[in-house]
């Protein structure tokens, strides 16, 4: 694994938002085995898509992404308290602190459109910077 792909990258594609082409290009050009998604991202996308009555889109996403070799990872139980320190240190919400902690634990590059990660020591990369 090399990249932790943040929720917003997948949502750009699934909701056909402004930067969906850049996100798609990245996911198509990078080997799926180099990509990781957190359990939190997977569930967050489910919540968002279900609220928009896009149940089938969520099921397709799970089939397309997770069955193609993308890694589903989660934060170790003993690392969960780290999210508090990370949130306080970098002024992040829980979602971002969790993503950051996972990136730290697995030593992954954060791929995101979320500028909040720019306040952290790991920073982030946008999809276009990596292809």
Describe the structure.
GO terms for molecular function: hydrolase activity; magnesium ion binding; RNA nuclease activity; toxin activity. This is Ribonuclease VapC. The chain has about 130 residues and is α/β, with parallel strands linked by helices. It has one domain (about 5-130): Rossmann fold (3-Layer(aba) Sandwich), CATH 3.40.50. Helix content is about 55%, strand content about 10%. It contains 7 helices and 4 strands. It has helices at about 5-15, 20-30, 40-50, 55-65, 80-90, 95-105, 125-130; strands spanning about 5, 35-40, 70-75, 110. A 4-stranded parallel sheet has the order 3-2-1-4. α3 packs antiparallel against α4 (about 55-65). The model has no long low-confidence stretch (mean pLDDT about 95).
Compile the SSE list and pairings.
Blueprint (H helix, E strand, L loop, with lengths): L2 E3 L1 H8 L5 H10 L5 E4 H13 L3 H12 L4 E3 L8 H9 L3 H13 L2 E3 L15 H4 L1
């Amino acid at each position: 694994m090399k990249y932790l792909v943040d929720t917003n990258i997948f949502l750009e594609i699934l909701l056909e938002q402004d930067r969906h082409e850049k996100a798609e290009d990245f996911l198509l050009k990078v080997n799926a085995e180099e990509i990781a998604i957190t359990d939190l991202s997977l569930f967050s996308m489910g919540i968002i898509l279900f609220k928009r009555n896009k149940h089938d889109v969520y099921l397709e996403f799970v089939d397309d992404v997770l069955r193609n070799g993308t890694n589903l990872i989660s934060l170790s139980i003993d690392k969960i308290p780290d999210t508090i320190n990370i949130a306080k240190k970098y002024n992040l919400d829980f979602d971002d602190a969790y993503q950051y902690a996972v990136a730290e634990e697995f030593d992954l590059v954060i791929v995101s459109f979320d500028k909040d990660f720019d306040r952290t020591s790991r920073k982030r990369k946008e999809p276009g910077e990596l292809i």
